[in-house]
Amino acid sequence: MARRRRGGRCRGGRGGGGPPTGRALALLVPLWWLWAAGSGAAPVYNLSLAVDEGLPAETLVGDIRAGLPAGAGPPGGFLLSEGSGESAVLADFHVQPETGIIRTARRLDRERRARYTFAAATLRGEVVQVEIAVTDVNDHPPRFPRDCLRLNVSELSPPGTAFRLPAARDPDAGRFGTQGYALLEEGGATAEPPLFQLRYGRPEPLELVLLRRLDRERAETHQLVVEAWDGGSPRRRGRLRVSVRVLDENDNAPAFSRAEYRARLREDAPPGTVVCRLRATDPDLGANGEVRYAINRRQSDPDGYFAVEERSGVLRLRRPLDREARALHRLVVEARDGGAQPEVSSALVSVAVLDVNDNRPAIRLLYLTESGGPRVSEGARPGDYVARVSVSDADEGGEAAAAEDGGGGIALALLGGEGAFALRPAGAGVFFLCVAGPLDRESRDLYELRLVATDGGAPPLSAEEPLLLRVADLNDEAPAFPQPHYRAAVSEAASPGTAVLRLSAWDADEPGSPNAEVRYALEGDAAALALLSIDARSGAVRTRARLDRERQAALELRVVARDGGRPPRAAACRLSVRVEDANDNEPRFERQVYRGSLPEHAPPGRCPLQVKATDADADQFGEIEYFLYDGFQYYEKSKAFQIDPHTGQICVSQDIDREGDPATYDLLVKATDGGGLSAQAFVRIEIEDINDNYPVFEQAIYVTSISSHTQPGTEIINVVATDRDSGIYGVVTYELVPGEFSSLFTVDTSTGIIYLISALGHLAHSALILTVSAWDGGGLPSATNAAVTVNILQSASAPAIFERSRYTFSVPEDAPEDSPIGTVKAREPPNSLEVVSYRISSGDPHGRFSIDPQFGIIRTKKQLDHETQSVVVLTIQSQLGNSPVYSSTQVNVSVIDINDNPPVFLTQSDKVTISHTQPPGTAVYIAHAEDKDSGLNGAIKYSIASKQSNAFSIDPSLGVVNLTRTVFADKQQEYTLHIAAEDCGSPPLTSSLMLTVIIEEQKLGPTLVFQNLVYQVEISEATSPGAQILQVQAHSLDPHSVTSKLMYSLEPSTDSVAFGVCSVTGWIYLRKHLNYECAQILSFRVLVSTSEHENLRQNASTSVIVNVLDENDNSPMFMRESYFFEMEENPIPRGVVGTITAVDKDSGRNGQLSYFLLSDGKYFKINSNTGEIINWVALDREKQAHHQLTVLVTDHGSPRRNATAAVYIVVRDLNDNEPLFPQAAPGQELRLKVLEGQPPGTLITTVFAKDSDSGNNIRVQIRKITSNTKYDCSKKKKPNQQQNKTKNTTKNTH
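^ Cadherin domain-containing protein, sequence as received from the core. Prediction below:
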């Protein structure tokens, strides 16, 4: 269309006439050109021209003729080709057809068109293919797609992070195109290194690279200019403005305004006091800049004395301070921002605690005695120093004050000692405790002193330091034998080393010291000294060699005991040892088991039965001596019974109480002939009950509270008394002792439940006191009646009252946890909408029970055990809503025994050896099992479950195994009996004991025997395991026989587990610690055998009896932690107020106790032996109504052990004060004035009286006493007027 539109125009040279223009000729070219091309004979030439873009119009481009070959003739003009679609040539160029000169028709733009082509034909038919290239010039600057760009960059972006930027575009080509970029930063400091740089290349994209970390807090935005430049000269440039916005990150920790805060605070400042305010700032934004405060408890204030408010930073006191414990508190307070990964900083807070006078003086002791401890020699003279005493006050300034005035106003006093010691001041708060009188340890070995220091404060504070000063021993006492002459006998058959007797001398000097350590030695005839020896430590006399009665029938020696003092002291006694003839027949009892009965409290000397044994030997070998021991299998002398050693009469030796002592005594009788051979029999004595116990109340004082709205018929409280007797003698009945308020109540004679039978609304008393007595079935009354105090609670609403004052439930001991036991119920008052709640207030220290607070259902919380606690007494309280008034009831829970414990033998197997000549009826063994259950579950019957022979039987109740026939003819040398112990529970439980009975025959060959038949040794319970205690040795009776190596061992038993024996040497050593309180005597057997062939092996055994010596390893214990007594004030000292009792598991001097008062020696003393507290100064309740004593009990062991208990004594009021009229002085008249003419009934004055007594003793009656009075004023004061005024006045006076 463009060519047709322009086809009618002609353009030629510059003139207006002449031949037709090229435009006109061009109309003909296409037809002719087609013809010429079709002939294929016209030559074609190429001509390439170039022209710069942007030149003005008519700029010469070139000559078409230059495309013709050299030497060609004139072309005669040119015809231009438009047929190729090159119409733009004619628009952008002027071509002169006549000459072929080409000029520009306008300014060319290479970026619009960079190349032109057309064909020019001469009239001769030659064709010149012309190509014009537009040469580029730098006419365009680089341009970015947009002028501005915004980037968001995190300030935590690491260096090297690249951000893509849009590249600049330049239409020019080649070197005139975009050649590079430069980065310009607006407003940046020239001294700082750049934050960004550009990275580009070909064909890599343009990137902005981060060189350093950004910091939003220093600069939130960065303005950059990216400049693009080309390769022209001069260069052309394009710019892109880049705005970098720094995104905030949590990269700043909170910063405190100060590195350390200092504050001062009084030590009596209450919790909540503001200490200081901390402030920390965080330049981050949003949650990253929100600061919260906390105390670093790991680095400071682990005890939580301070707390800081999280938001405000206010530091407050949380717990009371104590400057003396810590005068400066350093806290590390952390400030933490709210970032996802919070930043933390800390500051130090120093809180100086200001002193308040709240400390008592401190007493410090430095002992100046030789031992450096609280011990002073009994040889100390008056004036000798005992200790240096310094007093100080921990309050600020206390030390300085003590240095200035010799104690800082602190007075020091010495109490106690009865003048044996005194204080001597030495200035600067220092005193010396000195001896002031003679000392004698044997008369008094302990002084209880008290140092009392009082400061000069207002009010003054005081401190007390108890001082137990012991008197150290001097060797001023010689050992003493209990008797001057000792006699003993020993058989001539005794082996060397046989114990003859043990002598003991006592030294009154301090036990455990060298002064009281006794060593023994024998002196006398050389022949006797060759036969006997004495252990220097134990005093045990033993044979040294074999004895020969025919050569020497008696041995006379002198035993000398020397102590370890310097110089030593000594004492001597005479020792006579008779050598007796040997015998070969054992005594035989008529019966193996004796039974008897005895009423309790039978007088000593009463003999319930007699045992009888005979011996076939003659002379002294046939003389039998009887011995009595406790238990069937133990060798400890009986304390309750004694036996006549000649007649066998068993008699009572001490008072026996069936309730406190065993109800059945199992005794072992041993009959020994003159030669030392013995036999034994068993005795069981049943103790019959008599009515010898008074009913005893479980509590001497009962206290309960009831509402004044309580209705008649309500159970108030349950008093319980028990009688230790059995049968009818143990049945208790109750009755109310008539009194002021007894008519308001009644008591159930069988249960002890007290009921209310009258309304209480009319009573003005706040407390009612009742007395209840108890009687047993034998007519004995309770020694002490129960005092019941019923507090009347005056309240607007009545409390919830339990339906019963005492509940009794039972639960089997195997009940699972959370099992219901029973329900208690308290009734709400009428018209009450409050809810009743329940709780256990006492009686469950181990938390074995729980109660539903809403329904009152009591449940088990832990597993119960009847054997540990068979009866539990709980106190349940009920509360009505939030009322302060409670009511309570008592719940007795009986834990029912189930058969969960089988009988237990002391050992699973045992052996016994008998002679093959024993007659039928001989008691071979007593099987004894124990069952922890009670009742039928604990009753045991014995039987032989399996036996190899009918030679044995067993008593089902006693467990005595008897020989039923002789075993002389039996070839069997050993019998095995399986003894079963079965209880009577349902189902029954059993256990078994395997008893091996060995039949011993008289051997003709060499016999292996121990040197002693019985070894005895004493060992302290403090002996360490591993210590050797005794060596046993065996040998053959045939001096010509040669035995192989002997092997020693211990027969397994409960007593032998604590010991071991060296199998080669026979040394017995201790394997574990002994406990005297558990076992005083341990008996076991040592076995020895040869290592020969089994058929030729020889065996022997011996008994070892270990007497455990007590050590002071148990401290005394009071029966109660606190004791409470009441006594009435009296102008005459009352005497014994009450008795406190302590027990010590140790024995001898270790268990001997002495009591001392550590406080309040003004009114009371204590009997050091019995623990009786004695009032020795008259008491006045109006001066002091309560006394608190501290009692110390100490044993006599070394070192001594002690314990303390608190005693509270309440002084009851006695009506010993007369009422006084405060309106007039005592003995003076009260003068009043009244105007004449006053009508009757006019009030003249009000008279009231005061009384210092309490209770009913302050109720005052006022009467007008006159001989000719007209008015009668003898009235009791009304409760709401004078009486109340008197009561109020009395209370204020108290």
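The helical segments are 2-6, 22-26, 29-39, 87-92, 398-405, 526-531, 1148-1151, 1279-1293.
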